[in-house]
Amino acid sequence: MKIHEYQAREIFRRHGLPVPPHRVAGTPDEAENAARELGCPVVVKAQVHVGGRGKAGGVKLADSPEAAREAAGRILGMEIKGLGVEKVLVAPAVEIRDEAYAGVIVDRRTRQPVMMVSAAGGVDIEEVAREMPEQIHKVVIDPRYALLPHQAMRLGFALYEDLGRIRAAAKILAQLYDAFVAVDASLAEINPLVTLPDGALAAIDAKITLDDNALYRHPDLAELRDSTAEAPTETEAREKGLS
After folding, report:
1. Cα distance between residue 138 and residue 161, in whole Å
2. How many CB atoms lie within 10 A of CB 156?
3. Catalytic residue numbers?
4. Which terminus of the chain has fewer CB atoms gathered within 10 Å of its CB, N or C?
5. Beta carbons of 193 and 175 less than 8 angstroms apart
6. CB-based burial label for 131 (10 Å; 0-12, 13-18, 19+)
7. Could you name the CATH architecture of 21-92?
8. What CA dihedral angle connects 20, 161, 121 and 151, to 10 degrees?
9. Where does residue 138 fall: left (phi above 0), alpha (psi -120 to 50 degrees), or beta otherwise?
């Protein structure tokens, strides 16, 4: 089960990940108020369960509350890959030094979690795997022991050269894995994990896919399902018990 970015951000925040504040808006007025509360500039992002939001015009920068209102007015109601946008996320726009990727998936062959990182963040990880596979670094995690400190540090060294960011990344990766396990996810990723001007790391995008077979253990998470944001084929398959 896919959930919205704003929902994934809340889960990440509960597990200590450095996620900037955000607000969710369902109308242009709400987006304007959110921008005024958060302070501009802000980014206004469509909330739909598909990739390619930016290329489709579903992500816009706004340098004033009025501009945020206009951006939300353009995004709300638009269709991205056949899905209508009913909510937008409003978050502070941050200055970025560089972008990385961090994610956890369940390897279908071994049924073990795999942590992946790449210094080529901000783009689709499948594209990186296809065009620059050497940029992706992985560790297989034994669920009995979780992500071990030396594994997290090794991945941190794959991303950064300075010890401060390496240690910060190792902590974030451990928190990401904790979140992944806590909600019985099949995927949890930060793309991008950015370096801010002061050297701090921040997760400015969040994605989680929950294991449908484990939702009975998480009735609160099951309530996060938004059928209006699913592709019709996904909804039909789920209703027929095929997903």
Report:
1. 18
2. 21
3. 101, 189
4. C
5. no
6. exposed
7. 2-Layer Sandwich (3.30)
8. -90
9. beta
What are 68-106's pLDDT values in tens digits? 999 999 999 999 999 999 999 999 999 999 999 999 999
In the Cβ-directed half-sphere of 69, how many Cα atoms lie within 13 Å? Answer: 8
Q: Which CATH class is domain 1-20+94-243?
A: alpha beta
SS3 state at 168? helix
| CB contact at 8 A, 93 and 41 | yes
Q: How confident is the model at residue 240 (pLDDT cuts 50, 70, 90)?
A: low
Q: At 204, phi and psi to the nearest 5? A: -100, 5
Among residues 53, 193, 48, 52, the alpha carbon closest in space to that of 115 is found at: 193
Binned at pLDDT 50, 70 and 90, residue 231 comes out as low
Q: Where in the chain is the domain with CATH 3.30.1490.20?
A: 21-92
Q: How does DSSP assign 213-239, residue by residue? A: GGGGG-HHHHTT--GGGS-HHHHHHHH
Round to whole Å and give the CA distance between 167 and 7.
27
Contact 18, 196 (CB under 8 A): no
Q: Tell me whether strands 88-92 and 42-46 are parallel, antiparallel or unpaired.
A: antiparallel
